[in-house]
Amino acid sequence: MEIQKELGNLKPGRYKLTYRFDMQSLLNYYKGIFTNSAFERLTGINQRQLQHYSTRHRKPRPAAKKKIEDALHTLGSERMAAELKFD
Questions:
Q1: Is the predicted pLDDT of residue 75 greater than 90, yes or no?
Q2: Are 68 and 41 in contact (CB under 8 A)?
Q3: Lowest pLDDT segment from 1-5, 32-36, 51-55, 61-65
Q4: Which helix (H) or strand (E) holds 37?
Q5: What is the pLDDT of residue 7?
Q6: Residue 49 C-beta-side C-alpha neighbours within 13 Å
Q7: Long-range contacts of 54-62 (CB under 8 A, 24+ apart)
Q8: What is the pLDDT of residues 21-36, one digit of tens each?
């Protein structure tokens, strides 16, 4: 975004980035951070089913997509609320 501002393609100001993933990309992106076991605990969706989604062997239903999205939003909100004390 900074480069685009410098090139004059964006007006000065504040911008909000939104990341959009398809299910396979999202699961593969977070695979380096969460194991399927951890993702199962977060979402309540079976590990084997998550693996099928990440390989596009199966396509998740809207309810499963919503569970995954809600779990990630909840996790993010909890992490944002965390405070560390430095003594």
A1: yes
A2: no
A3: 1-5
A4: helix 36-43
A5: 85
A6: 14
A7: 54/23, 54/24, 54/27, 54/28, 55/24, 56/24, 59/23, 60/23
A8: 898 998 998 888 989 8
What number of residues does the chain have? 87
Q: Which of 60, 57, 64, 76 is nearest to 19 (CA)?
A: 76
pLDDT in the model for residue 16? 83
Q: Which residues of 7-27 are buried (b: 16+ CB within 10 A; e: fewer)?
A: eeeeeeeeeeeeeeeebeebb
Token duo for residue 41: 């605990």
Whole-prediction pTM: 0.70
